[in-house]
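Revision sheet: structure tokens.
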Amino acid sequence: MGRPRTNDETVKERLVECATELLATRPRESVTVRAVAASAGASTAAVYSLFGGKDGLIEAVRGTAVTSLFRVVAAVPASDDPLADIYALAVAYRRWGRDHSHLYSVLFGGVQSFEPSGAVGTSDPVRPLVAAIDRAVAESVLDGPVTSIALSLWVTLHGLVTLELAGALDAPTAQAAFRSSVHATLRGWTTPAVFRRLRDSRSADPGSAPIQETGAG
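Predicted:
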């Protein structure tokens, strides 16, 4: 009987999946090659053969998370309303976090540092947000440094999603907090003319959302 293959694509995917779960639920130092291999029902040799060791495996987990989030935010269509587009990207970010809680924990819990002021690669999940904010600034909708606006919005989103994933907010509270907090963050960066328009729109119809919620969910 031949030896089982250690470089099979199925084994590779299983190792990444198990490493993701362990990294999301345990201290990083406790996630050893042996622990991941045992969880995946594979040999330690498979980890070294496929990833070169623990660092390579962690990089593969990071890559999976980055690619998954980028795919979701990049699929958000653009409209003629830059504020609605930014809100739709925020909705997509939250939905991805809820649907991929382990990947979210790994990506924003220490395996990767989020640096909106760094170089934006073609597959960087921050790229669509930076592009939408850059467009809003160019159209005099938002006023401020693009990276500062992106960071403030991410701080808001990360706090909300982290609390939601931790079970600190029930569904209705999480939805209401998400809507009001994202709106407030964006309003804080709007130009005076746009701020007045949003304020007047809100006053005219108190039940209306100040920012069109394209793709909200």
